Amino acid sequence: MPGERLSIRDNSSVGRFHGVAASNGEAAPERHTESKQKKESGCRRWFQRACPCCFRRQNSSYDVTNGTDGVVVGGGENEEPTPPLTATGDTELNELTLVVRSINLLSGKSDRNKKEHHTDEYHSDELIIRRGQTFQMELDFSRPFNLNTDKLHLELKTGPLPQVSKKTHIIIPLVDELQDDRWEAKIVEQNVKRVKLSVNSPVNAVIGKYKLTCTTQCEKTGETTTHDPNKDIYMLFNPWCEDDTVYMESEKELKEYVLNDTGRIYYGTEMQIGARTWNFGQFDEGILEACLFVLDNSEVPPSGRGDPVNVVRVISAMINSPDDRGVLEGNWSGSYVGGTSPTAWSGSVEILRQYHKEGGTPVKYGQCWVFSGVTTTVLRCLGIPTRSVTNFQSAHDTDVSLTTDVYFDENMEPIHHLNSDSVWNFHVWNDCWMARPDLPPGLGGWQAVDSTPQETSHGTFRCGPASLAAVRSGQVYVKFDTPFVFAEVNSDKIYWQRNLDGTFSQIHSEKKAVGHCISTKAVGSDERVDITNLYKYPEGSEEERIAVETACRYGSKPDVYSSPIAEDVRVEVRMEGEGPRMGGDAQLKIVVKNTSSQPRRTTLHSQVAVMYYTGVLRDTVKKDTLNVALNPQEEKIIEWVLPYTQYQNQLVDQAALMMTLSGRVNETQQVLANQTSFRLRTPDLNIEPVGEAYVGKEMSAKITFTNPLPCTLRNVVIRVEGLGLRDLHPIKVGDVGKHANVTVTEHFIPTIAGKRKLVASLDCRQLSQVHGVADIDVRESQ
């Protein structure tokens, strides 16, 4: 059969087959009967064909050469050419040789393997299993398998250079009883020529794609054959296995963080939290291969893929592309020529497929929520429980001070070239679940992982995994990248003023400036859940202050908390309802309160600038000076308005603005400082399914949209996709007039039954973060 390799061991055949020469070159003794002579003659011819060199040593007068039709023998005068080999020897050999005819990996969607390993949702005919758990396969032999005289072992190989010492070349013996935590196989059922094996894998097995072969040996003949079924086995992490380091106990959480192929990603500001549906699609066709391709493109060898800490760290680096040609190219410029606007993506599938199809060319373009969405897809696909997490008012500490520093000159004007630290309106990263045997006890569980390229870690743009328990308690000295994550969620905002001699003095601090409303999708529903308490103690509590001061002692400014500052005048910015809407005037309230028993006077300087959601300021659109006089215990509310005409031509992605307030109290010289970001809310795409949904039956959905701006939107495209409903499909709408309504109808044929989500996003240069989602319950065809 094709794919089989037969190896004949000559010495072991002596005494087992008629006419096989002994090692001294003498033929086996003859019996002088006619029938025996005929039988011997046939066996001699079999031996002559099987091993012509040995036969030549026995008969020196013969010249043996290989012909196209058999063995041609020439020599003595009275000798006739030997005819082609008769079937006598072949038949006896074949009857004894044990050959694997086929291997059935039982990899069907409804087969026991995929059901028990929770891999039946993968759109693949290959066997996909999880480590630390048995799986089964069926072997068909050329004859019945004899436990007493036959031997069998399996081999699995992964990577370009498999090695037993590296656990990338696995030899699986046949045993009587399976034991935990090792590669072994056991016969659990035998029916004539068919044998069913139960195969066990250890909980620390390397994940990836394995090549399978099966080797058999007959003890009677010493014959060894190796069968290559040309089938692969995919090994994943196993969060259902108690001994796997990614084990998660709750079945509901496993269903959410491993098996759910859609989710919610949050954005905006803490007072205006927006949500969008994201298609993770980890089970879609070709996605598992694409995820392993991402690992293959890294510089980490396959032998390092047994440790989830290592795998997560690799994926964190490979999802971005500045230094390793990873999956996504980041772009925060506002110009997305030659690629797709980050706000236009609504899922990971097309990104990973494109990256795989183009051989590792980074896909254009991504920003933090896209990096996070793709990271969730890859890690869930590989079997690591993962979720996307959004931190509002997320600090970016650039000097490892573990504080967010703002610098002013002598006149209280911001010194822009020194203000390299920033606070993003929001930032999206990931939590993944695993034990951390490499850290002190108690630091396992959720780990923060950030694939957005911000700062390098050991020379590579990556971040994490950082233990949330360590972040919460200020243990910034444990790996990996805990100081950076701590600063993102719990750094104090320190204001500095330049002195006449060029030095700087601390003039104000905000202890509740960053790390607000840390959000993720709830388990089992589309609701938002606040997980801020996992990242830090309640703001202002003694535990939280101890954690901050502990962390800062390991930063570049360890003495920042040496001199506390008294305050009796407070300033803040308030917003009513959902906040300003795109296309209208932005209205806010500035609140100034005197908490002392004495009158206070101050001059407030306000300026509003257009801002990227990353906290990088673009242009100032309005400046004001406000004189405020306060009686004892008085609170004043100042109405503040930004007309649409002042910002309409200035906005960038996310439609975000930053208000900075600064001033000094005349009586006490207390410095007042506050920074508040807000965004202009955009409308939703309304998706209305038409009719009932059945597998294989065409249906449609109406998508409606109203332009909120008093100007024409140019080159509008609506991108529609839905897992099990349709692949990504761009609909070119064209220009949309001011305040105009648009309705488009999308036709599609559902392919998977169950509750599905149809997602749409609007791609337009003048308007971003416009999207919508509809739930569609697809039934089996009647």
UniProtKB/TrEMBL annotation:
<comment type="subunit">
    <text>Interacts with PLAAT4.</text>
</comment>
<feature type="active site">
    <location>
        <position position="368"/>
    </location>
</feature>
<feature type="binding site">
    <location>
        <position position="539"/>
    </location>
    <ligand>
        <name>Ca(2+)</name>
    </ligand>
</feature>
<keyword id="KW-0479">Metal-binding</keyword>
<feature type="region of interest" description="Disordered">
    <location>
        <begin position="1"/>
        <end position="39"/>
    </location>
</feature>
<dbReference type="GO" id="GO:0007399">
    <property type="term" value="P:nervous system development"/>
</dbReference>
<comment type="similarity">
    <text>Belongs to the transglutaminase superfamily. Transglutaminase family.</text>
</comment>
<comment type="function">
    <text>Catalyzes the cross-linking of proteins and the conjugation of polyamines to proteins. Responsible for cross-linking epidermal proteins during formation of the stratum corneum. Involved in cell proliferation.</text>
</comment>
<dbReference type="Pfam" id="PF01841">
    <property type="entry name" value="Transglut_core"/>
</dbReference>
<dbReference type="InterPro" id="IPR050779">
    <property type="entry name" value="Transglutaminase"/>
</dbReference>
<dbReference type="InterPro" id="IPR002931">
    <property type="entry name" value="Transglutaminase-like"/>
</dbReference>
<feature type="domain" description="Transglutaminase-like">
    <location>
        <begin position="360"/>
        <end position="453"/>
    </location>
</feature>
<feature type="active site">
    <location>
        <position position="427"/>
    </location>
</feature>
<feature type="active site">
    <location>
        <position position="450"/>
    </location>
</feature>
<dbReference type="GO" id="GO:0046872">
    <property type="term" value="F:metal ion binding"/>
</dbReference>
<dbReference type="InterPro" id="IPR023608">
    <property type="entry name" value="Transglutaminase_animal"/>
</dbReference>
<dbReference type="InterPro" id="IPR013783">
    <property type="entry name" value="Ig-like_fold"/>
</dbReference>
<dbReference type="Pfam" id="PF00868">
    <property type="entry name" value="Transglut_N"/>
</dbReference>
<feature type="binding site">
    <location>
        <position position="544"/>
    </location>
    <ligand>
        <name>Ca(2+)</name>
    </ligand>
</feature>
<dbReference type="GO" id="GO:0031424">
    <property type="term" value="P:keratinization"/>
</dbReference>
<dbReference type="InterPro" id="IPR038765">
    <property type="entry name" value="Papain-like_cys_pep_sf"/>
</dbReference>
<keyword id="KW-0417">Keratinization</keyword>
<keyword id="KW-0564">Palmitate</keyword>
<keyword id="KW-0597">Phosphoprotein</keyword>
<protein>
    <recommendedName>
        <fullName>Protein-glutamine gamma-glutamyltransferase K</fullName>
        <ecNumber>2.3.2.13</ecNumber>
    </recommendedName>
</protein>
<keyword id="KW-0106">Calcium</keyword>
<keyword id="KW-0472">Membrane</keyword>
<feature type="compositionally biased region" description="Basic and acidic residues">
    <location>
        <begin position="28"/>
        <end position="39"/>
    </location>
</feature>
<dbReference type="GO" id="GO:0016020">
    <property type="term" value="C:membrane"/>
</dbReference>
<dbReference type="InterPro" id="IPR014756">
    <property type="entry name" value="Ig_E-set"/>
</dbReference>
<dbReference type="InterPro" id="IPR001102">
    <property type="entry name" value="Transglutaminase_N"/>
</dbReference>
<dbReference type="GO" id="GO:0003810">
    <property type="term" value="F:protein-glutamine gamma-glutamyltransferase activity"/>
</dbReference>
<keyword id="KW-0449">Lipoprotein</keyword>
<dbReference type="InterPro" id="IPR008958">
    <property type="entry name" value="Transglutaminase_C"/>
</dbReference>
<dbReference type="InterPro" id="IPR036985">
    <property type="entry name" value="Transglutaminase-like_sf"/>
</dbReference>
<dbReference type="InterPro" id="IPR036238">
    <property type="entry name" value="Transglutaminase_C_sf"/>
</dbReference>
<feature type="binding site">
    <location>
        <position position="490"/>
    </location>
    <ligand>
        <name>Ca(2+)</name>
    </ligand>
</feature>
<dbReference type="Pfam" id="PF00927">
    <property type="entry name" value="Transglut_C"/>
</dbReference>
<keyword id="KW-0012">Acyltransferase</keyword>
<keyword id="KW-0808">Transferase</keyword>
<dbReference type="InterPro" id="IPR013808">
    <property type="entry name" value="Transglutaminase_AS"/>
</dbReference>
<feature type="binding site">
    <location>
        <position position="492"/>
    </location>
    <ligand>
        <name>Ca(2+)</name>
    </ligand>
</feature>
